[in-house]
Structure formats: structure tokens, C-alpha cells
């Protein structure tokens, strides 16, 4: 394998008792063992490292360890023999110099090295070492695909970091310059591209990363809008490039929600812990019953396959078991549903998350005619603060659900950054456009305090525009809701949301009548709000 993090530093080959370790160094004096760094620096680096490993979610492979090195010389490297990522303390300090982006810079460094491991970039080196007499091995040694691997590590490493909350876009070029200066590296090192070319290579990798991020964000927003079929196209695009338990889970939830949209409330009167709201079912379904059943069953099969892949990556992924159990419940496969439920319940240590399993236990009991056991489970979940429990208890007891107050027409359409979305439809322009498949494109456009995402398909016959505020936005909705306001104020202004979406860290309230949504924190405060326009499904 070529030297790791080649876009930043020159490399030397070190011989160890366990084989060859490829590490970055600024000079030949950098070899040899070094004292390990602990304390606050190690704790910070370990937190970022653990976030990245969890985000990848591939626990079929041995979990790498992180070492923070005291001695100057090494920057960031991966030791394939010890399954170990080594970070130089000096490199840590360079990341700290990025101020508010220090954790993002650290994530960029560590994610790059982890991708080398998870994408098995070291395979050709091991094959060559163990089969040195074979011509195939000698050819692999001569292939020199290190640059491709390093570009892939930048691209996928950036997406790995992004998927768990670190924004590494635009970090790499500055990190590259600071590393050269801090380690006193020549801009024209023998055997490697000069600094100018490396910056161009990094820029290319970052553009690829930005494209993948746009696809990811657009997929999530399409699910929010209920455009499940469109979102599935985006998930397939992402999975062609990057696989993780969360991506598979998102794709599975999207497929399950699409199937639920075809389930009449009488078939499933209860609210499953993965769905938005039963009132969204049957919207826009124009197929006959046979076609609808075939499509629904295909979607449920697809959802199960995605959840199985997520669980294959991490057998302790409680969310995957919960969602799998929900789909099996929809299929009426009670024994399998209860088995997945029990297994997942044992995997979670969070009381509120565990209460989702209790809700599902209640739903399964109710669907099998045991109303006493169902009530017991749902009341238990309600005491634990579960939002799904109350509505399902009302259904179980045949209590009428509160009607949703109609949202009165506001004076004008909601806007963000004083930009009417209707104007965009007349002259659509984006900062970046990404081809998702032959008929589907997406793009984004940055405004002063918001970002616009565009889905465009079938020559414009199918479209969705979503503009969402960013931190610091001072504007308010037409009814006076702004960042930091509580859910009670939203309800007072707009009524109860027609649809609500549970997120790992909060929720989303959707008001289709006003083409408006609110993203809430775990404390039910507005973190952002968005407006949208879309074609008919």
C-alpha cells in the first residue's frame, strides 16, 4: 500500500517486528518508538475517532485503536499489522489552530486513515508480501494505485465525517498548507506531486465530497416531504459509493414508509415507531389493489434487506432490530417480529429508546387481540415519556384522536432570506448540480443565511425545492416563529402538525398546508425551519 495521507506528507517505510508499517514523516530521524500522549488531547481525539468508527458501523471488522504520539515527525498513519491509527501530537496541535473548525480538521485527518482500513487499501501490499514469487503479485506492486486510494480516502473520509456531524468540506487545502509549513516540507519532494498539484488533487476530492453531501441531504429532505420513491433513487446512488449501517437503515426506513403509505388505516390502525403519521397513508396512490399490494410487498422486502445489511455491519445496532421488527409486524410475521424485538431490546441501554420496543410490544399484542397486555405495554411506555404511546393508547381504547385544527391561510407565502421559491422555478440556478441517474438531478444553492436543495426529474415534470435556515438566521415565519422558539409556540401559531418525524436527536414537524417544516432539538426548540414547493406525486 502506498503511504497514507499522501496528499499531505512524504512517506518513509519502517520495518517492525510485525511487518512493514507505512507512516508519514518529515525526516529520517522520525523513526523509532515514541511516548504515547494521554490526558485531554487523547480524550478529544478519541471522541472524534469513536464517532467516526460508530458512523461507519462496520463491526464485522476488528475495531482499530488510536494512538497519539508524543514524538514529532509522524503526522497521521495507519498500521495495518497492529490495526492502529497513529496521530502525531504535532498534527493534533495543527488541527487546534483551526479554532472553531478544529474538530472538523481532526475528523478529516482521522477519517482519511480509517477509510484506508475499511476500504481494504492494504490488500495489494499484503498479497504482494505473501506471494512475492507470483507474477500477479509483482504486477500489483507496479500498479501504483496509491493516488487513487488517497483521493478515495479524502472523498469517503470526508463523507464519513460529514455523516456523523463533522463538516470537513474546505478543510483539506488549508490543512495541507499548514502541515507543509509546520513540518518544513519541500514543495517539490522527489517521487510525489508538487504542492500546487496536490492542492488541485485535494480540490477535486472535495468537489466529489460536496456532490455526495448534496445527494445525502436531498435524500433526507425528500423523505421528510413524503417523496419516498424519489428518495430511494438517491439512497441507491449513495450506497454505490459508501456503505454504513446508518445509510442502509435510512434506505430501509424510507422503503418501509413508502410501503406504509399504501396501507389503509383499517389494516394498521396503530402508529409504528418508525412511521411519520398514519394520516399520510394512501396519499397519491392511484394503482389498483393488486398493483398496490405487489408494490407494497416489494417495498417491505427491500426494507428488510436494507435492515439486514445494517445488522450485518453491526450486530449490536438496536435501531436496526426495531425497524426490522416493525416491518415484520406489517407483514404479520409475529414470531419473527417478536424475536427481532427481544434481540434489539437487549442491545439498547437508553431508557427512552427502549420504550420504543415496549410500544411495539403493545402494538403486536393489540393486533393479536390481547388488549389487556397491549394496554399494559403502552401505559408502561407512556410513563417512560414515549410520544408514540399516547396516540396508540387512544386507538386501543377507541378514544377519538384530537382533530387537527385547520391552518388558516397566511397573508402571502412563507419565505426565507426574502427569496420567493416561485422565482427560482422561473430561472433555476444552482451552485452545484449532481447527476443521480439518467433522469434525476439534484443541486444546491447557498444564500446568506439558508441553503436551497433542488430535486429535478423527468425533464422537470417531477421536482422538489427545499430551502432551510442555517444557524444565526434572524428572520421569522409569517406567524412569528423563529430559531429557539418552543414547540408550544409553533402549535399555538400553526396548530398540531399534520406529520411529525422522529429523529435520533429531535424531531421534525411538517405542515403541508403551509409548505413549511420545523426541525426541533431534543428539548423541542426550533433549530431550523424550512419552506418547500414540489410537484404532485
Query: What does the main sheet amount to?
Result: 8 strands, antiparallel
The percent of residues in helical segments reads: 40-55%
Q: Can you tell me the residue ranges where pLDDT is under 50 for at least 5 consecutive residues?
A: 1-30, 123-144, 275-287, 403-407
Q: How would you sum up the global shape?
A: globular
Nearest-integer average pLDDT: 80
Strand content: 5-15%
User: Radius of gyration, rounded?
Assistant: 26 Å
Structural class category: alpha+beta
Biggest sheet strand line-up: 6-7-8-9-13-12-11-10
Secondary structure tally, helices: 18
Taking the alpha carbons of the first and last residues, their distance comes to 49 Å
Describe, in plain words, how this protein is organized in 3D.
It is a single chain. The strands form 3 sheets. The protein has an 8-stranded antiparallel sheet, covered by helices on one side. Helix 14 packs parallel to helix 16. It is 48% helix and 15% strand. It is globular and about 75 Å long. The protein has 3 domains: 203 residues, no CATH class; 171 residues, Serine Threonine Protein Phosphatase 5, Tetratricopeptide repeat (Alpha Horseshoe); 114 residues, no CATH class. It starts with 10 loop residues before the first strand and ends with a strand. With 537 residues, it is α+β, with helices and mostly antiparallel strands. It is built from 18 helices and 13 strands.
Amino acid at each position: 500500500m502506498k503511504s497514507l495521507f499522501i496528499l499531505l506528507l512524504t512517506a518513509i517505510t519502517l520495518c517492525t517486528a510485525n511487518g512493514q508499517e507505512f507512516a508519514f514523516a518529515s525526516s529520517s530521524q522520525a523513526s523509532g518508538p515514541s511516548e504515547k500522549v494521554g490526558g485531554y488531547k487523547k480524550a478529544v481525539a478519541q471522541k472524534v475517532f469513536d464517532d467516526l468508527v460508530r458512523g461507519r458501523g462496520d463491526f464485522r471488522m476488528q475495531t482499530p485503536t488510536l494512538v497519539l504520539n508524543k514524538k514529532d515527525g509522524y503526522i497521521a498513519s495507519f498500521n495495518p499489522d497492529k490495526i492502529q491509527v497513529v496521530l502525531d501530537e504535532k498534527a493534533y496541535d495543527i488541527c487546534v489552530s483551526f479554532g472553531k473548525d478544529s474538530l472538523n480538521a481532526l475528523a478529516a485527518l482521522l477519517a482519511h486513515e480509517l477509510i484506508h482500513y475499511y476500504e481494504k487499501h492494504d490488500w495489494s501490499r499484503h498479497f504482494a508480501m505473501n506471494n512475492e514469487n507470483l507474477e500477479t503479485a509483482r504486477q500489483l506492486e507496479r500498479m501504483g494505485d496509491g493516488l487513487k486510494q488517497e483521493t478515495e480516502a479524502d472523498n469517503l473520509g470526508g463523507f464519513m465525517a460529514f455523516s456523523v456531524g463533522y463538516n470537513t468540506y474546505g478543510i483539506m487545502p488549508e490543512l495541507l498548507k499548514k502541515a507543509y509549513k509546520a513540518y518544513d516540507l519541500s514543495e517539490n519532494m522527489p517521487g510525489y506531486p508538487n504542492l500546487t498539484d496536490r492542492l488541485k488533487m485535494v480540490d477535486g476530492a472535495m468537489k466529489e465530497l460536496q456532490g455526495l453531501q448534496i445527494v445525502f441531504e436531498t435524500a433526507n429532505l425528500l423523505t421528510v416531504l413524503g417523496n419516498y420513491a424519489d428518495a430511494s433513487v438517491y439512497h441507491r446512488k449513495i450506497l454505490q459509493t459508501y456503505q454504513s449501517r446508518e445509510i442502509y437503515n435510512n434506505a430501509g426506513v424510507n422503503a418501509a414508509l413508502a410501503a406504509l403509505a399504501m396501507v389503509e388505516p383499517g389494516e394498521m390502525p396503530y402508529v409504528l415507531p418508525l412511521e411519520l403519521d398514519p394520516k399520510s397513508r394512501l396519499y397519491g396512490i392511484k394503482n389498483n389493489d393488486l398493483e398496490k399490494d405487489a408494490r407494497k410487498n416489494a417495498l417491505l422486502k427491500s426494507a428488510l434487506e436494507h435492515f439486514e445489511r445494517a445488522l450485518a455491519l453491526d450486530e449490536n445496532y438496536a435501531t436496526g432490530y426495531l425497524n426490522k421488527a416493525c416491518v415484520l409486524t406489517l407483514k404479520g410475521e409475529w414470531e419473527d417480529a417478536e424475536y427481532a424485538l427481544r434481540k434489539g431490546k437487549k442491545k439498547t441501554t437508553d431508557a427512552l429508546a427502549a420504550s420504543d420496543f415496549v410500544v411495539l410490544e403493545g402494538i403486536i399484542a393489540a393486533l393479536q387481540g390481547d388488549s389487556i397486555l397491549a394496554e399494559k405495554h403502552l401505559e408502561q411506555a407512556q410513563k417512560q415519556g414515549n410520544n408514540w404511546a399516547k396516540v396508540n393508547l387512544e386507538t386501543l381504547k377507541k378514544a377519538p384522536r384530537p382533530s387537527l385544527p385547520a391552518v388558516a391561510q397566511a397573508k402571502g407565502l412563507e419565505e426565507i432570506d426574502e427569496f420567493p421559491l416561485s422565482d427560482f422555478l422561473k430561472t433555476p440556478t444552482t451552485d452545484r448540480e449532481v447527476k443521480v441517474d439518467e433522469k434525476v438531478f439534484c443541486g444546491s444553492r447557498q444564500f446568506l443565511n439558508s441553503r436551497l436543495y433542488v430535486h429535478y426529474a423527468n425533464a422537470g415534470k417531477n421536482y422538489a425545492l427545499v430551502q432551510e435556515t442555517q444557524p444565526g438566521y434572524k428572520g421569522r415565519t409569517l406567524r412569528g416563529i423563529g430559531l429557539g422558539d418552543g414547540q408550544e409556540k409553533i402549535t399555538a401559531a400553526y396548530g398540531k402538525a399534520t406529520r411529525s418525524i422522529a429523529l435520533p436527536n429531535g424531531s421534525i414537524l411538517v405542515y403541508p398546508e403551509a409548505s413549511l417544516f420545523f426541525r426541533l432539538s431534543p428539548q423541542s426548540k426550533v433549530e431550523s425551519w424550512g419552506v418547500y414547493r414540489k410537484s404532485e406525486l
